[in-house]
Amino acid sequence: MKVNTEKIPLETDQGIIESEERRWGLPLKEVYKHGLLFYKAYTQQTAHGPLDVNSVPPLGVLDVIGRDRRAAWQALGHMSQIQAMAGFIHTLDRLCPSFRPYIEAIQKDFEDKKEQEVKKEQQLKNHKELEDRVLLERDSHNNAKLTEEEQVQRVKDALNAQSYEQFYEYAQQQFPDNVDHQAVLIRQLQDKHYQEYIQQLAVDERLAKSHINFNEEDTFETNDAKKDCNSNDTDIIDSNEYKEDSRDGLPGIDEARMWCRGSVEVFKQSARDNGGTLTVAHGETVTVRVPTHSTANAICWEFATDYYDIGFGLYFEWSKSPTTEVTIHVSEDPEMGRGKHLVVHTRPMVSLVVPIYRRDCHTEVYAGSHTYPGEGVYLLKFDNTYSLWRSKTLYYKVYYTQ
Hints:
rod-shaped, Jelly Rolls, GOLD domain-containing protein, Acyl-CoA-binding_protein, 9 helices, six-stranded antiparallel β-sheet, 3 domains, Acyl-CoA Binding Protein, GOLD_dom_sf, 402 residues, alpha+beta
């Protein structure tokens, strides 16, 4: 093969490298390596640089091929390694038309492999991001679950701290000589107490929502009604109900006025000093009977409790009391329903003034007043029938006004 000794018209090796990469789409060394596999030339200049006759071994007498190769090598002069590779590629491209398609196929294969590597890297990246997101969501779910469990445990601890003494006394009464049975019973009572507490929260929430709707519907009908401290405290009597009262032979009853105020501890101390305390056992209803007074025209009341709420309602009994003293009666049910009038053949007729609802009187003092509808006895009912285990301490005051 005749070697083309024409110099490549580029000033520097770097310029040659950039030019060849633009031309072939592959680094110069890569094109050269594949060119060598396709056809060998310029190898001595590329491998060893310019020929130095003093450093190469002498050729044999009969080494014709070696002599021709060395002559061609020497003809390249002081061409650099980069120039030698570029010259080799250009000569091969000129002499062999199939060289360029060969390089283009290699370039296409290289690009395909590079694209596959990029896709694989992107897939690995997406997979890693998905795993991180799943782990993050799992950790978030576990943290939320842990937080919920912590809240439940805090509620249980608070309830257990409040009720332990009472449950302990009850367990000692049931199993006086068996500590293990006492512990089991206390645990059962505490679990049941917690379930009762959760159920009552749900009931209170439903009552609150239902009464909000009731207030929105009746806003324009009760503009003159006084807002009370518990949305379920008063029962509004309309003109139709007055007519029903007349058919029962009883006069109409004005609605009660009710409100709340602070200073719970001051009120409880004052009631305690005046003997106005009583205990409403679990499952019981205590009725405070207050006869009307001949020199008064209205009754007033105030009450509060320790730590827990209690049910309260007010009724008026159409009977003449033989005494003006306040008396207390205990029963195991509220006795009174929610009708306006309860007519019982063996008892005096009774009218509903305020229906029985649970009142948060452990946070505020509940107070109210009612104008006498006539002569009779007021029945202040304190209902603890919904509580299976807890007794309530009640502080109250009842007095007359003119």
